[in-house]
Amino acid sequence: MEDTSLQFSLFKDCIAKRVLSHPETLRQTQDSSELDDFSSYLASEAWPTLPDTIRTAAYETREVVPNDVDDVPIDNTSVSFTDTLISYGFASDHDDTLKFLRKVLADYVADACAPPPVWSSTRTEECEICDRQVPLTYHHLIPRSTHTKVLKKKWHPENMLNSVAWLCRPCHNVVHHIATNEELAREFFTVELLLKREEITKWRNYASKQRFGVRRG
Fold first, then answer.
1. How far is CA 121 from CA 33, 71, 129, 190, in A?
2. Residue 36 and residue 168: Cα distance in Å, rounded?
3. For residue 91, what are the β-bridge partners?
4. Angle CA(115)–CA(56)–CA(37) in degrees, nearest 5?
5. How far apart, in whole angstroms, are the C-alpha atoms of residue 76 and residue 7?
6. What is the pLDDT along the chain (217 residues), one digit of tens a residue?
7. What is the pTM of this model?
8. How many Å apart are CA 83 and CA 64, to the nearest integer?
């Protein structure tokens, strides 16, 4: 079962960015689904072998995260990880795969330990679900009523508590209709996770075609 933590997601994204920037990707012309599958596989192979200090890296734990990724032990990296990179032409030999991984780790540590954003600065012009340019509201991705429990259960770091998505009112209402606040906090705490929910995808396909504020009939 794939890890659903924020850290794993960041790690997978860093692998995807490195794969995309490699000349071999242009020759293989991977589409987005292939890239997602490939990055997920590599991440799931490498992630369990990384030290706990790396797998739990966050702004709050930055003091215990190695400053230099060259100090991170990666000798136990999965053979499947290294063999796959070599087979697909992203590395020439075992040492080259470790260089690739260290570059990924450098990107990941920088992202994971970055200061939290000022959430108001993330405001978009379009609803993050239906993509319409309409009046927006902000949706607390981790509902405020769950914050005490979230911290007690250690579901998310404190700096994530005030993260928001910018949604139009109809999409905002749908989000709260399909899940309880606790479910939203535990399972659907990013826009990407919300869009994996079938009801949200169906709603998005419908709402994106509607003219905001126009009554029919």
1. 30, 35, 18, 17
2. 28
3. none
4. 100
5. 20
6. 566 677 898 899 999 888 887 776 655 655 667 888 889 999 999 999 999 999 999 888 889 998 888 899 998 999 999 999 999 889 999 999 999 999 999 999 998 888 766 666 677 889 999 999 988 888 999 999 999 999 999 899 888 888 899 999 899 999 999 999 999 999 999 999 999 999 999 999 998 988 765 444 4
7. 0.59
8. 31
